[in-house]
Design brief:
Strand order of the largest sheet of chain A: 1-30-29-28
Radius of gyration of chain B: 37 Å
Shape of chain A: globular
Distance between the termini of chain A: 52 Å
Number of helices of chain A: 1
Shape of chain B: rod-shaped
Radius of gyration of chain A: 23 Å
Number of strands of chain A: 30
Number of helices of chain B: 1
Oligomer: heterodimer
Largest sheet of chain A: 4 strands, antiparallel
Strand content of chain B: 35-45%
Largest interface: A-B, 27 and 13 residues
Helix content of chain B: 25-40%
Order of helices and strands of chain B: HEEEEEEEEEEEE
Structural class of chain A: mainly beta
């Protein structure tokens, strides 16, 4: 008995340690709600990201001077487009998923096929464009020049179709076509809605107090969301031209030795996007957090942490089950929204 | 010695004598050549050292300091590049040269620069995309100090026409002595 008791006593600490280790292993194997697939490959900050309309691939651009395509399911790299000679700021996929259009610091706006073949260079652009937008019918591309004009090209011929004359030397960073292709929204501090056919100014939406970094139409075209350096996201009704919701995310995540701490301050916001069914709005910014909002009520739904630097772009997959976010930390994270 | 070997011996002696003479001449030439090379190299080295000492500086258009991640943190350049803010570049509106500081994401956060054209000198501290502290000296002697955040601002200007102090809070001027006489000349952005 004494011997047995001795055995129990001497082995008890080992049992406890093994039990704790086992529990830790089990806990680490449990899926983390905020766990994301991390796509790596860019050697510089990632500036833009989008899933293709059909959802079979995704594109990203970077200050490393490249555009990359990725296989959506696996995150495996598909192609590296090396046609740019300088920092690439924005990338878009045509509605038919065939073309990838990107813009860089040299003012080069390049049209590649999704397989990486350079199809054409949209020429004559003064300065550089911070964004490039492709019409839903895949026929036109638009970019905002430093002289204040918005240039619209025919993607079939490569020719300049029209120039929407904005305020001279007033340059903006955000462009988006309406889902029906009739309007083009351009964001500086105010949003100007242009008639995409005749270049007439339709309306101006005022409310932000600083540069708009990104804007997105809701899938039904009735709402517009804007992300601004003024630290707010706004949801606008395009029927009443009113601001329906002003979202003020708070909480700046700082990583010290891989441990995140959240500071209760607001930071500029850089990106916004509606889910395919229009019910959810995703946003990101310098706070390094990806947030989901109820697009109807403006209430926060979820937040995803993991990026170590500013979130530069967000994009929903076609089925709305995944959200991709790009960051200046050189990664793309793809969040599973079903988890 | 056998007399039949005498001419051959003499011939060998002459041959040896000639070879010794040639070798002596060759050695002399070689010594002279080595001396010339040595003197030349010494002269060149001295000249290079003198040039380095005279300049004592690197003549470059730019110098970039990067952190462990490869992010640019400090730039000394003429002119400096357009400001990078959260992954996109903004047009500065004019060339500036000097020292610029960047945060760990590469955002421009302040600098000590002179501008081309109207040659002001600036010292600025910036948030993400905005100046908030500015020291400014204009070439004719007017100087200013500004701190501001949105609708709240403090401005102190000194010039030939006097001193001006202005404080604004929530967009309202709450203190001003005297009424600003100086032309407002802001930053280059």
């Amino acid at each position: 008995l004494r011997r047995r008791s001795f055995l129990y006593e001497s082995y008890t600490p080992i049992f406890v340690v093994l039990l704790l280790a086992g529990l830790m292993v089990i806990a680490s194997l449990r899926p983390n709600e905020n766990e994301a697939a991390v796509w790596r490959g860019h050697e510089g900050p990632v500036t833009d990201f989008a899933f293709s309309p059909a959802g079979d691939f995704a594109v990203s651009s970077s200050l490393d001077g490249t555009v990359r395509t990725w296989e959506t399911e696996t995150g495996n790299p598909l192609h590296v487009f090396a046609g740019h000679k300088n920092e690439v700021f924005a990338v878009s996929v045509s509605g038919n998923g065939r073309l990838v259009i990107s813009t860089d610091l040299d003012g080069a706006i390049l049209v590649h096929t999704k397989d990486g073949e350079l199809e054409r260079r949209l020429a004559g652009f003064p300065g550089w464009a911070a964004d490039v937008a492709v019409s839903p019918d895949s026929r036109r591309a638009a970019a905002w020049a430093m002289d204040g004009a918005i240039w619209v090209w025919d993607l079939v011929s490569g020719g300049l179709v029209s120039k929407f004359e904005g305020e001279r030397n007033r340059w903006g960073m955000a462009l988006a076509w309406s889902p029906d292709g009739r309007f083009l929204a351009a964001g500086r501090v105010a949003v100007t809605i242009w008639n995409a056919e005749n270049g007439e100014r339709v309306k101006t939406l005022e409310g932000h107090r600083d540069f708009i970094r990104d804007l997105a139409f809701s899938p039904d075209g009735r709402f517009l969301a804007t992300a601004s350096m003024d630290k707010t996201v706004r949801i606008w009704s395009l029927e009443s031209d009113e601001i329906l919701h002003t979202l003020r995310p708070e909480g700046f995540v700082v990583y010290t030795k891989n441990e995140p701490t959240t500071n209760p301050i607001s930071t500029p916001l850089t990106c916004v996007c509606f889910s395919p069914d229009g019910t959810i709005l995703a946003s990101g910014g310098a706070d390094r957090v990806v947030r989901l909002w109820d697009a109807k009520t403006g209430e926060p739904i979820r937040r995803f942490e993991g990026h170590r630097m500013t979130v530069s772009a967000v994009s929903f997959s076609q089925d709305g089950k995944r959200l991709g976010s790009a960051s200046l930390d050189r990664t793309i994270r793809v969040w599973d929204l079903d988890k | 010695m056998d007399s039949t070997y005498q001419p051959q011996a003499m011939d060998s002696i002459h041959k040896l004598d000639r070879r010794v003479r040639h070798l002596t001449q060759g050695m002399g030439g070689l010594i002279v050549l080595l001396a010339v090379i040595l003197v030349g190299m010494t002269a060149l080295k001295t000249k290079a050292t003198e040039a380095q000492d005279a300049a004592g500086i690197l003549r470059v258009r730019g110098l970039v300091v990067v952190d462990a991640n490869g992010t640019e943190r400090v730039r000394i350049e003429a002119p400096l590049p357009e400001p990078l803010i959260l992954g996109k570049r903004f047009p500065r509106g004019g060339d500036v040269s000097g020292i610029m500081l960047y945060d760990d994401e590469g955002n421009e956060r302040g600098g000590y620069v002179t501008s081309d054209g109207f040659p002001n000198v600036f010292f600025t501290l910036d948030s993400l995309g905005k100046q908030h502290v500015l020291f400014l000296a204009e070439p004719q002697g007017d100087t200013a100090f500004y701190i501001w955040n949105g609708e709240n601002a403090f401005r102190l200007s000194v010039g030939e026409e006097g001193v001006s102090l202005k404080i604004r809070s929530d967009g309202e001027t709450i203190f001003e002595v005297p009424k600003a006489k100086l032309k407002e000349r802001g930053g280059n952005r």
